[in-house]
Amino acid sequence: MVRKIENFFIVNAPAGSGKTTTIREMINKIISINSKDNVLCITYTNRAAEELSKSFSSPNISISTIHSFLNNFMKQYFGSPEIIDLYFDTYQDSLQQRIDNKEAKENQNESNQKYIEKYGDLSIDVLRKNIKNIYYNENSFNSLYYGGLSHDDLISFSSKIFLKYKMIQNRLSYKFQYIFIDEYQDTTADVLNIFYESLREKRTILYLFGDKMQQIYKNYDGSFELQFLKFDSSKALTTNYRSVPQIITLLNNIYNDSSFVQNVSEHMVKISPNFDPRVIISSDVDERLSQILDKYPNSLTLFLSNQSRFQKIGCPSLYRTFSKMDLYSFSKKYGVVDVLTDNTKDNPDSLMRLIFLVAYINNNYTSNNYGVIVQKIKDEQSMIGLKNWKLSSHQDKVTLNAILEELSLIISSPKKSIKDVLIFLKGKIAQTTVTFSEIMEDESYSDALDVPIEEVIKLYNYLESPKVSTQHGVKGESHDEVIFVADDSYNPHVSMYNFFDIWSDTELSLSTLEEFYYQYSVELNKIIEAVGMKINDLKKEGFITHEDYLIEAASSIITRFQGDDLFSNLCLQDYQKFISKPNVTNAKKCFRESQIYGILSAYKLFYVGCSRARKDITVLLDSNKIKGNIDLQIQKFEQLGFKVHNESLI
Prior knowledge:
- There is one protein chain.
- By secondary structure, this protein is of the alpha/beta class.
- The radius of gyration is 28 Å and the shape is globular.
- The relative contact order is 0.11.
């Protein structure tokens, strides 16, 4: 039996189990017992940190994302000579390669030239002389010539520092008496190791809260599994406060693990759903979805991709243009979904914050809520205000009404764009914080300004009563009626229909599937390291060089996973084909982890999607995409607790 670490706890907190409330209550209890205790809570998103922070006023409670915490905690070390030496030990090869690369992309050569123009030369010695401080540059790219760390490298480099210097580990344990890590399943192994190495054999109590079934981001690589076994897992949130018994039974059957069974809360027992959980198999999913929404208009529809989500809302151009903006690209502090789904004054994007305010004012004008508009304009004077603002006379109100009437006509026209609205407002409104000119002259908004204003209104109305989301984006959300639209995807990699096929013929649980995936990934990484690149990147010449090794590696993998049902069903045939006919095409088909990851991510997303439902869940399958034996899949769904309607046969 693995010896547990007394001050380390891992708390399984499934969907609907009141995780955030529990964390809030635990922190309040800690502070009430000893107000001098320092508590750190690491959340996954800025929004989660901001929401939880509203519950506390004590200066001894720190709530932030891991990037914000590390940036603040490590700042005092980033200028020391030892840390700068470690920086060059870590990145010298990358720096030298960038300096020497004569076939680099144009922007890289331009970067090299600018550095030479500024400092006279570009070499490791010159870089060492000029870098006096390491810093977090708050985006997804390193600025290695200047000591700037990206999102990922802030974490990986901080981990190196923590693991090398006991003094810094000790400072963490001395500073905080309690540390909570929320959504631990989406945390990287580097982050987990920082806290694990710093706090074991110390008095600081560490809590990890989360649910592995809700691990839908590909951040964690499986390398912390042995350490997880040393955490006390006796504490768990086992009551589901969200869903009716039929849904909870379904979720327990999907999870298929006696260690993670949820119980029904008393207040949900008496609530009756409209119908039993159901699977509808249709040859025309779009038409069937429309019919369901006509009958149940308040349903939350879950699509696999954000593109499908915003298409359904009616604002595809708005989503597409903001997706192209570098400011909201992958790994930035805020993503495109953050700025398109926040219709409050806290929205980080200047344009969306302003245009959502315009939509709010217009909606209330068309509903004759004149008093609400006047109050809103007063409340938002920092963002928007009328020239010579006053409403002291009847004429002032007539003037305001004329502006709102003209604005409403512009907004209601399908031919008008966001730019048209801003041009109109620029002549009528005086800005104090964000000027219309700044927005209109900002090149990053050039495409967004041409988006039809009607798309913004549709998005705003949707946000007032959200009924469409993605299967990735619903963690924490819930709805009475949920429609799960099954689909496949390459980015992110999700093989939903392959999953349903494998699931119907193989006994699956999260633990067995994850265990196989992590073990299989380790074997593939050994091969990638030996070859020097991913097999999918091999050209014909490179394959010839490594052919004998790859044939031997394929045989070794077959032996390693012999008898494993998942390997036999998903991989064995491809490896046998490669050995009988070795070529680069067949090699690429077998030496890849994506076919396993696609099944794993589909399993988790299916669970997460179903867990959003409070009363009713409908799963929509496209009969044209179903793979394998449909009768076995129908039987599997029925075993789980669904009623299946195969309308493709009608």
